[in-house]
Amino acid sequence: xxxxxxxxxxxxxxxxxxxxxxxxxxxxxxxxxxxxxxxxxxxxxxxxxxxxxxxxxxxxxxxxxxxxxxxxxxxxxxxxxxxxxxxxxxxxxxxxxxxxxxxxxxxxxxxxxxxxxxxxxxxxxxxxxxxxxxxxxxxxxxxxxxxxxxxxxxxxxxxxxxxxxxxxxxxxxxxxxxxxxxxxxxxxxxxxxxxxxxxxxxxxxxxxxxxxxxxxxxxxxxxxxxxxxxxxxxxxxxxxxxxxxxxxxxxxxxxxx
Length: 257
Known about the structure:
Structural class: alpha/beta
């Protein structure tokens, strides 16, 4: 078992509490609009959707060869989209390319720093989030964000400031317990990796209401069918445990001001 988790029920109990949906959220939101499931489940606050300003922009980080998040928000709510992915760079095709407002596509991955990796199809570029999202140029509550970046979410979240978060109306994250924290500076520091997860979840909870969460796994998705998930199933083994989850958040300022 991965040393970050190592059957630590206490750690997962804390994570369970930190990611629990806020009981007041559904009432404050006047209900939810839901899409998807598992690692790609989205629960949007209806009041936030109605409060979207004309200047709104969407930023979808990690799109594979399809992106229902950006397509739904584009076609249903008129949000222009910026799409980022450096691994899957082929143009969206067929029904996946049916956007009312043509999106802007960038063959770039989002990370906490700038670097290039060698890939079987050539070099792939990763950019620090502020280089592709100029937060200082955005108005407050003027952008929506989806982050599905396979473990890099932790380094990105660490670099977002409190001021950056004031610009985000709502955000959908795919978060991983171990991926992205098993190499680099945290490779041999399991306690520090755990601190990173808890610290960032605490920060998010201070600024956002969690509207929903859905546990999932990176492999063997068919084993999810019909299974009641519990936190005892969480861990880092991508074939036998639930190593990731989706989490939807809405900025508290949308609902309290």
